[in-house]
Every structure is written in C-alpha cells, then in structure tokens.
Amino acid sequence: MLQPAPWRVFLFLLNIDLYYNKSAMTKIRTFIAVELPNDLKMETDKLIVGLKPLADGVRWVRAANLHFTLRFLGDIEQSMIPVLEENIRRHLADIKPFSIKLSGIGCFPNVRRPRVVWVGADGEIETMKILTQKVESACRKTGFDKADKPFSAHLTIGRVKYQQGLEQLVDTLQKTEFETESFEVSEVVIFKSDLSPRGPTYTPLGKIELI
Questions:
Q1: Catalytic site includes residue 91
Q2: Does the structural domain 31-209 have CATH classification 3.40.50.740?
C-alpha cells in the first residue's frame, strides 16, 4: 500500500491544528444586559417615534434592541462564554427577582452638548446596582479588566451624530414626562452584537435566571 509523503501528513495535521485554533480564538462583540419586556419596548418606541422628527442628527435605537446594559465586554473569545455564564450564575445566586420601571428622559453629558438621549429608571434601583456589582465581579473572575465606566441605570434610546439642529429636541426633552408601569427583572442575558450598516443585531448567547 502506498504511504502518503511525510510532507502531506505534516500539512494535513497543520491544517487541523489551524482549524481548531481558529475556532477557539473566534472573537465576538459581547455585552451583558437586562432586556425590556415587549410591551415596554413598544411603549418606548412610541416615545422615540414622536422625537424623531425633531432632529436629523440622531441615530435612534430600534425597539427590538432596547435594553439596560450592565457590562460591555467588547470583542472576546467565544470560548469564554460558558465560563462567563457560569461565573455570573454563581455570583447572582442570592439575587431575587425585583421590580423597576422606566421613568424620566434626558441626555448625556448635558443639554448643551448632548451625545446620548436616555430614558431613566426608578423602583428597586439599589438592587439593580447590587446586581451590576455582582456581574462586574463575575467578569473580573473570568479574567476581564475592570469596567471603564461606573454603572448608571438608564436606557439609551438615541445617539447624537452631529450637534447642529438639536434645539427643538433638547427643548422637548426638558418638557417631556415619561413613565411606565413596573416590570420584573427576572434574568440577565449575555448578548452577541453583530454590527452592520443597518444597525446592530443582538443575539442571546446565555440567560441567567434570578431565582
């Protein structure tokens, strides 16, 4: 029986090694969040629809993408997701479901030079902060660096692309009152974010239930 040349065996083994190493090193854009129930997504979307005509220089968030970010991780190795999920589950073992509501609207950093349009939160905010701290501890345990921004309980609904022509929008934000019914926070979700010219698409990679 003819035996394959040694160099062919070497190339075959090299290709296998490269394939598995590439799979292990696949990186995905990732963040951890609390997702809104669909009825509140729709209610917030009605608010956004009313604000859209007031300024051209804002990129508004689609209803399907509305969420409270607990921790943005950026591009991470896909192989880390199971470890991250398990660490979050362990750190959140003593956190029970709690209630918050959407309340208030404004912009960061200030009304003079807005960069982000946000909806605030009210209710059991201290529990939300503790939840975020425990998620941060789980991320550090998994090997990630410390978060570069302190947590602020808000929902980003728009990002300002340019500053011209925002006067009417800012004036309306200062006069608008927005508040929803409370909803129960019962899980934390690890999301993958795929960027495209149409905007990001978020896909759940893991869910950690609060019991």
A1: no
A2: no
